[in-house]
Structure formats: structure tokens, C-alpha cells
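Model: Ready when you are.
Researcher: Fold this.
Model:
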Amino acid sequence: MTMHLPRKTTLLSIALLATLGLSAPAFAQTQEQLQAQLDAKKAAEEAKQASANAQAAQDAAQTATTASAIQPTSGTAAVNAAVASDSANQATTAASVAAGAAATANMASDEAATGGMQTKVASDVAEQAASTAEAASDMAGEAAAGAQNAAQDAINAAATNPQPAPMPAAAAQAEAQASVTSSPPDSVVGEYKIDFAALDANKNGSLSRGEVKANATLTGEFRAVDSNRNGSLSQDELKGWMD
């Protein structure tokens, strides 16, 4: 027994099927537009993270440079500072790539939404741009970590090679005096010039220890110059010392 659907029902079914068939491409386009928007959003987030990583790398490089400057004699600190700076440059470049990819993804999403580009093409462009931004963000993160490690190494190197503390003024003066009078007790340094008449306060033709106190070098050499050990210096004894 054959069943016959009412003509009205048949026409309604045909119309429904036709509507579904016509709406399939539109539905696909809507999905592609939505995917392009999601990819653009992902690319923007990756670019933002890459920028933060680049800033962290730059801060680490500055820290390493400061540590190297505090201890300029530490070659290790200087090398690590250079490594940190190089890593910071890499992170900055990666962040720039991520930002460019995010801009491309956003443009593709807009084109898909407005019909300026085929939705399938626009969606593919946005997806590729998002992947590029993600890879660049990862690279910036690795570079930032490298910069931070190098900065810490520079700090450690500077700490293990501290600069000598500045010598107190009194100690520096004492060392300077010691360097002038560091000859052996019985040596004659020579090649010194003195004003004999000015030092000979009592004008007796010889110089006592008290009279030569104004000349630290001669005071230190007094015993060596006093060849006859009479406790005073004659012009003849001083002649060899001053020549």
C-alpha cells in the first residue's frame, strides 16, 4: 500500500531542504570569520606577552651592565653583561615580529568580517599570523630568561671580586712617606738638592738631626750621610749625597 504525503507537506519539506542547502556556505563563512577573530585575539595576546618578555630582558641587561660597571676589573662580569645585552636585543626583535604578526592577524580578521577578502583565505592568514606571534613570543621568553641568568652571573662575579676599599688619608700619607725613606739604613740615595744655609739654623757650618727635620728624605738618610758618625752633617758629607 502506497502512502501519499499531502501536497502541502511535500512542498514544505522541499522548501526546508533548499533553505538548508543554501545556508550551508553562509554558515561556513560565519565559522571562518569567527576563527579569524579568535586567531587575531590569540596573536594580540602573544604579542603582548612578547613585549613584556622583551622589557624583562632589557631590565636584566641593565642590571648586568650596572654590576659590571661596579666591578670593572671582573672580566666575567663584563662577559655576562654582554651576553645579557645580546639576549635583550634578541627579545626585542622577537617582540617586534610578534607585534607585526598580530597586526596581520587583526587585518585578516577585519577583511573576513567585511568581505574584503575571502573568508577562507582570511582565516588561513590569521591562523598563520597567530602561529608566528606565538613562536616569536616563545623566543622572547627564552631570550629574557637568558638575559636574567646572565645578569645574575654578572652580579655574582662582581661580588666575588670586590674593589679594594679606599685607603684612609692618614695611611696613604704614611705609605707615601715610607716610599720616600724605604732605602736601607746605610744607603745614600743621592741626586737631592737642599739649601744648606737655610737648614743651618745656628750657622755653625754643619747640620744636626734637629735642623734637617724639615727635609724628610735627608732625615731618613742622615745615618748614611753622616760618614764620620759625629751626629752632624758637613757640607763635604752632603756633597756626594746631593750630586
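Researcher: Now this one.
Model:
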Amino acid sequence: MLRPPISPLRLTIVLPCFNEAANVRTVVEAALRVGRDVAQELEVVVVDDGSRDATASIVAELEREAPEVRLVSHPTNLGYGAALRSGFLAARMPWVFYTDGDGQFDLEELHGILPLLESHDIVSCYRLSRRDGPMRFVLGRAFTWACDALLGLDLVDVNCAFKLYPRALFDAFEIRSRGALVDAEVLAAARALGLRVAQPGVPHRPRRGGTQTGASPKVVARAALELSGLCLRRFAPAPPALRASTRTSKHLAAQ
């Protein structure tokens, strides 16, 4: 069954990080404070994606300070999608919330989106006012438009890093994206399974430390290639066994 109970709330907060030594302690402490307030059972999974700064050592200190914190480490930088995939699969709770480790979202907004689970299966937020520069704004709009058009989605802001998923979704399909396409891939799978997606707006804050990498040519090119591959897989005829598996998953989602 893809949709777990929402009361009592058992929640994993996933925080992907790459060179976030300037921000990670503040973000983890906020996740603990808000998570303890909203959930009856909580874990905070921090995925260090091969950082070259002190991100991993700071999280290791937090692990010793708080039993809810768990560090998952990549020996090298594998990409944003790979970091999220590791965090999602490491989650032990039936609901998974994720946001980035850069501190550009206020974790207190989690209070406001949780009631949406009464009528929806997924919460995928959009940024009310992007605070990361005009280039990121243009690229984000263009990427969302491309994903909507090519994958049949209807999203306002596909890559907004403030989302809440049922953990069972990640057992229903395999995440293949290793870059910025990961959100679109997950939401396309959710749509195919008939899951209901709420899209509230949340404030977005400027980065206070560290360096953005999301608009680099390498990241953009990787996202474009992965989107092409996902489109090819989407429109290719599915083998009979996969079609049967999809029908079974849709049946489970409807229960």
C-alpha cells in the first residue's frame, strides 16, 4: 500500500548536501526542532555527496549529539539525484520529507503543508519568489516547462526542494536519474501510479553561505541528457511483465 497512515506521523527528513559546511549545522538543528514538533517518530538522514569541506565531520558531530541524526556518505560526488536516491532508500519511516542542506527554505513551513496529506498523497511545493538569481529563475522555468510538456506533468516548479513523499513510492520503481532530473522522474512515476499531488507555495531565502552549483553547464547538460533518456523509456513499449506490475501498483495505490 503506497499511502501510509498520517497519524501517528512517522517521518524521515532527508537533507542532501555538497560542500555545505557553512549551513549544515543550522539546517539539521532546524530539522530536529520542527521534526520533533510535528512527528511522533523522527529521523534526519543527511546525505553527504562527496563534499570536500567539513560537511561530513559536522554531521558526524550532530550524530553524537542527537540520536535521530544519521549520516550517509558518498566517497565521491555522484550528483544531486544520486544523493536523493541514497537518502530515500535509507529512510526507515513511512513518510519522507526532503529539502536541501543549503538553508534556503524555512523548515517551519512543514507545519503548513502536512494538513494537505488529508486529501493528497504527495506535497510538491513551489517557490513563491526565487532568491537565487535571474539565470536560475530562467533555467528553472524552462526546465519545468520541458518536463510538463514531455512527461505529461502539470507542475509549477518541478525542482523546488521542499517535497513530501510516501516512502513506499521508492520501492515501486527504480530511480535512475543521478542529476537534477530526479524530481521529475519521481513525480512522473507518481503520476503513472495515480497519486494525488498538492502544490502549495513556500517562501524562498537567499543562500547565506557556500556556493551554488545547480546552474553549472555540467549540471544543465546532464539534466537534458537524462530527460531525453526518460522520454525514450516513457514512450517505449513496456514488456508484458512490467505492464502487469504497473497495473498491480495502481491497484495498490487505489486501496
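Researcher: Key takeaway?
Model: The chain has nine helices and nine strands.
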